[in-house]
Amino acid sequence: MPKNKTDNFLKAIKKYANAQKNAMRGEVKQLKTERLKEAEERAKRDRDRLVREKLVEARNRNTAILAGKTQEGQKKLFIERSKMVDEIFGMATEKLMAYTQTDAYPAKLRECAGAVAEVFEGRDCVVYVSERDLGAAEEIKALFGGNAEVKADKTIKLGGVRGYCAEMGIIADETLDSKLEEQRGWFVENAALSVL
Predict the structure, then answer these.
(1) Which residues are within 8 A (CB) of 127 and not within 5 positions of it... i.e. 6 or more apart?
(2) Is 76 inside any structural domain?
(3) Which of 27, 67, 103, 112 has a CA that sits 20 to 30 A from residue 181's CA?
(4) What is the distance between the alpha carbons of residues 23 and 20, in angstroms, rounded to a whole number?
(5) Do the domain assignments include residue 168?
(6) What is the pLDDT of residues 89-141, one digit of tens each?
(7) pTM, full prediction
């Protein structure tokens, strides 16, 4: 029997070893499955993060490109609008210059001078006109009650009158130049210019 006992003992050890081996294989297999699942989840998270980063990077790049193109377009639009405004006001300037050559202009010049004279209320002043309008100096001076000195001003290109009263410390501007410039500001703000 001793041999049988030894055989049984060896069989029991072998059986136990096989059971341990199978248990270890199961644990290893389960561990491999868990590790593989963890690795797959980590890879998926890394992939998703990388995709998000690439999308954000692409969106930022496209936004920068779009912003650049928008800015470039706005600049071109501004230049085109400025050209249109310059062209429109160039034509208005030509029409005003032609108007100063008509028979109606001297009455307008007197009207401008009268408006400035009203502001100064008979005080001494200097009245500025364009060089072309110096011929009307005596007529303009008479509107101020003789208390005015009429001088040519090269900055007055179109016509009208600008006066300065030192006593009051003010300038009254009734020139066609300033009126046209005021209209330019109004036009730019209120004209619905669209460049097609």
Answers:
(1) 113, 116, 140, 141, 144, 148, 149, 150, 151, 161, 162, 163
(2) yes
(3) 103
(4) 5
(5) yes
(6) 889 899 999 999 999 999 999 999 999 999 988 888 999 999 999 999 999 99
(7) 0.61
